[in-house]
Design a protein that fits this description.
single chain, 4-stranded mixed beta sheet, 5-stranded parallel beta sheet, 37% helix, 10 helices, 13 strands, disordered N terminus, putative 2-phosphosulfolactate phosphatase, alpha/beta
Length: 272
């Protein structure tokens, strides 16, 4: 896709949203940057763990794969983290709550991590050139990182058990909105992005939920708005039913962490 300017033809940079991993062909991500989004809670938990000093987080497809990583390592150096059905896996050290990964527990540790949806979305995105982890807690850092890329960007929503979730779509819309606003304010970046239909839908959802006059400069107010929205999503209601009310607040703390986890192909781990 291209657009004609006075000085010639400019190729637009694809900005794609995928509402579920099952709705994309893995090969379509080749050569691009994939941002894995599981707001409630895998993305938020991974980012928090690394921010609090974890050495790396290794995404695993199954609990047995995570256990095998610990068996092959110094047991004291590896924590098992994750959930199935939203609850702690039997025999694991930590679940899938950001609150379970404080510095005193995770600093210097490798975390073998497996979840129902988030790690599965990451593994499905293996064909991407670069794999990043995004959530509201590192929203600004993700946006700044994506502005540096010159390849296709794919925002991959994990969903819940094969169903689209509002919280993941809302974050995707926030990123699309911010990238478009940034390009509109920079003459050299005008008309930079080519949105797919899902990206336009996600952007519209963000605007609908947050309003046209969102105050981006007040993190406290923005976090409160996001928290209210997340409580109304199916993912938020699931957490309320499980008694994880406080996790919704933790996952809504917009721009509280200034780092973006990236997958290291050599060791198979996420680090910053």
């Amino acid at each position: 896709m291209s657009i004609v300017h006075d000085k010639g033809t400019r190729i637009l940079q694809p900005l794609n949203v995928c509402f579920l991993p099952t709705l994309m062909e893995a090969a379509d991500l080749a050569g691009g940057t994939a941002v894995i989004i599981d707001i409630l809670r895998a993305s938020s938990t991974i980012i928090t763990a690394l921010h609090n000093g974890a050495k790396r987080v290794i995404p695993c497809g199954t609990p047995d794969e995570a256990r095998q990583i610990r068996q092959q390592s110094d047991a004291d150096a590896v924590l098992l983290g994750g959930e199935r059905g939203g609850v702690l896996i039997e025999g694991f050290d930590c679940g899938n709550s950001p609150a379970e990964y404080p510095a005193r527990r995770v600093a210097g540790k490798t975390i073998a991590f497996t979840t129902t949806n988030g790690t599965q979305a990451l593994l499905k995105s293996a064909a991407a050139e670069t794999i990043l982890i995004g959530a509201f807690v590192n929203r600004r850092a993700v946006i700044d990182r994506l502005q540096l890329d010159q390849c296709a960007v794919h925002l991959v929503c994990a969903g819940t058990n094969g169903v689209i979730t509002g919280e993941d779509v809302l974050f995707s819309g926030a990123v699309v909105e911010a990238l478009q606003k940034s390009s509109a304010s920079n003459i050299s970046d005008m008309d930079r992005w080519a949105l797919n239909d899902s990206a336009r839908i996600a952007q519209g959802y963000w605007r609908q939920i947050m309003g046209e006059n969102t105050d981006y400069d007040c993190a406290e107010k923005l976090s409160s708005q996001i928290e209210s929205a997340l409580r109304e999503t199916q993912g938020g209601r699931n957490l309320l039913d499980l008694g994880y009310d406080s996790d919704i607040r933790l996952c809504s703390m917009v721009d509280s962490i200034g780092m973006v986890p990236m997958l290291n192909r050599k060791n198979g781990g996420l680090s910053c």
